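Retro notes
What went well: the complex prediction finally ran end to end.
Inputs used:
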Amino acid sequence: MAPPREETVESKSSENLRVLPGDDLSDVFISTRGSKFRLGPGLRQEGETVVACKCGILRKKEPNDVFWIDNHQKRYVPVKGETVLGIVVGKAGDVFKVDIGGSVPATLSYLAFEGATKRNRPNVAIGDVVFGRLLVANRDMEPELVCMDSAGRSGGLGIMSDGGFMFQCSLGLVRKMLSPKCTLVKQLGQVMPVELAAGMNGRIWLRGKTVSSTITAMNAISSAEFMTESEIRLMVHRLQDSVSGMWSGIS
Amino acid sequence: MESSDMNDSGLRTAGSEQNLLSRPDGSATFTQGDTSVMAAVYGPADVRQNKEIIDRATVEVIYKPKSGMPGIREKSKEQLIRNTCETVILTAMHPRSSITIVTQEVQDSGALLACCINASCMALMDAGVPMKCLVAAVTCMLDSEERLVLDPTDKQAKDALCLATFAFDSTNKKVVTSTFQGSCTMQQYQSLLASCQTASQKVFDFYRTSAERRLAKS
């Protein structure tokens, strides 16, 4: 192994280690030897060793020792159970084709909506934005979306109707926004009420009371990608000042 | 733009910048001295029916010369880059999809093929394409007095007895690709190979420092 990496292993803890494809991470996992651990995205087992296959930061989640690699990827690879925002691109018989940013479009059955029956078809048009959950997602099959949970309720999923605006951002930003540590959405909601749906495929849909508030919220979210928690707080604070100033100027 | 001085190893100064294009899934420029190449990666994306492979991803490489239409020489370069990249990409992870690498020559001042391979590798890293390991290519030559020159410029390469480009993988430092022009003895070939192999470590170190600096920002 190259000498520079051994130094990094010694000088830093196993967490937040920067790894490159092909790095042998066996020495990181020595501490967990004996106990079970799980390998997430970006890590592979090669015989007795664990090897990274992506460039990024090694992350660890405590309760049952889950390891994965966090990176700034733009291309979405569908994962089962994730919620995504898609655009309906076609109808084929009783399924809709939905573009979710993956390598192939996902299918969405017309029966996979709340209250849908064979008689009562949902009103879906080509070009609509849908917020759905991935029911099937593996590398050998076409991904399948549903817009309801196992109990048949929508639970916020479905067609994003009545205006609103969808924009593309990096996958890392959505993950950051949805992580429990991040307070961006909560803080933004105190400044201006917005409806928001964040898809794990790097798409965010939002609707404010006015067009200008929608644009402001979009800019605030997309600028937060490389900000720390305190910087976000400062940014939203400034936003609050300028928004209140703007509105008082109008009235 | 990251850059590092490699004079002690005989290589020209290398520099790179990742994620500089907004449309592709991953992109990078790689410069070695005055030679500069820009690479973009799209994938895993949809694949044309006739190019679909049932159990792995299709790797495509498009090489764009600085001017004019790509000819036979460019097609052979594409093939070399494609075969080099396909060996390190875990194509079985994304069956029935395509990984397209577009390499654009910006400036050719010698060792262009090596620069193309290195730029493609950095772009693949940026795109988050799963890879077995990294790959680094180094060019070297023997001049008219049979002296070994690493990473030659185009002026130096004009009066070369032979010119070789080798690509190595990062885990075992084994040869992935080898191309050769001209003629030399067995011993000379071995010494060319050995010096390229030691120099490739510098390229791998460069990959690591630039990746660490990039990740430190986030």
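What we learned: The helical segments of chain B are 72-88, 112-127, 154-158, 186-216.
What to try next: split runs per interface for comparison.
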